[in-house]
């Protein structure tokens, strides 16, 4: 189905009009744009607050930044890249890859950079207004400040975009450079500096070995140790890359193999007793092989179930921490007294540079307060006890809205790009149902959203994410529900979305050729039934 709207139209003195507005130009935003184009829907705009595409791979530029999903799986199926430099791609490589995808897909003319969404409100249109029973009114700032009207809104804003800065007494008194790892200050001199790092999550595990090579000394404040398994990183030889370029079938086979290995990891992450025991044993063997000091080893050993927190991959972190260039402080940073940093253990450490590798606002998405649905209720208010949805993508009381990388769409065992591709495909199939929806408006049945939320709850109830004895960013503290992770495999997610038949939306009209007949019932499988 094609639309009769051009990419964006503007009547004199009126807002821009577009069928679909996409917020964000990372993997999710580009994935949605690709899905729309392949469905013949050309009337869309991509609004990006930053100065280029790439999302988290544009924003995170700290030393050592890289992906912990194998490079040949961490990309779009339609855009394989034979030229990745190694088994795990560097952050700058991934950003460049997304720039190239945007170029190949010719998204540039439909993209507005440096254009943040300031607000988005669902407007109920008067009957006979000529454009359906409602639309989204989006206010933008920056280079393209103004108003956009869209029939549908796609939030592809990412889930790890706003740095989490902990409340630390006296932090404002620290005299040296102080910044979050996701907002790296490249003007700060690292060579010969005393650097303190707060946090031992995914960013810190990559960052600390790099800093240890340059700093006079690194002090690492650890609140909770992580389970870390071998990474097995290595560069691809020139001959390998040339072979990948010449033999696309080899890349296809490699991707399929990596996918299968990722799906197999779900068992150990989700609480299968035998798989978790094997993985835990492998992680402990990795720790013992790389850290000889028994006291330090004990400080680095988690006391919670394997998989409860994000499992990390590194071959360099333990050797760096075990070296004389790093001091592990087994306590959270609780206060700063000028350049003196005080741990929960009472220990005091001097630092010239302070890096907060403290994660992101994940369970309460920053964009949620900007989006108003039916009766002016914000998405943040709708999610006041944690994010909810149907299909991890659509939300009741927010018509014609699709959220990518939102509720229960993250993974702890495989590539998140796979989830984005499934969500974008579902959104396109759902948009096709606007032809038979009253006024072209898709309204999720609240009962269906509640049922899906309960379905997630049942699947998550016995997993380590809820029962493993740790605090993680997958669970919303307000409700105790698992709201970030999908509690299943990618195969299961595909199957779940494939079963969506349009009945999740209220008042879908079916075409018929006679009383009581529904010969051509729309199907979200992309077929007629």
Automatic annotation (TrEMBL):
Q: Which PANTHER family match?
A: FAD_NAD(P)-BINDING DOMAIN-CONTAINING PROTEIN-RELATED (PTHR42877:SF4), L-ORNITHINE N(5)-MONOOXYGENASE-RELATED (PTHR42877)
Q: Which organism is it from?
A: Microbacterium lemovicicum
Enzyme class (EC, first level): oxidoreductase
Q: Where is the composition biased (Basic and acidic residues)?
A: 515-529
Q: Which UniProt keywords apply?
A: FAD, Flavoprotein, Monooxygenase, Oxidoreductase
Describe the family membership recorded for this protein in Swiss-Prot or TrEMBL. Belongs to the FAD-binding monooxygenase family.
EC number(s) recorded for this UniProt protein: 1.14.13.-
Record flagged with keyword Flavoprotein: yes
Q: What is this protein called?
A: Baeyer-Villiger monooxygenase
Organism domain of life: Bacteria
One MF term from GO for this chain?
Answer: flavin adenine dinucleotide binding
From the UniProt entry, list the residue stretches annotated as the region Disordered.
Answer: 510-529
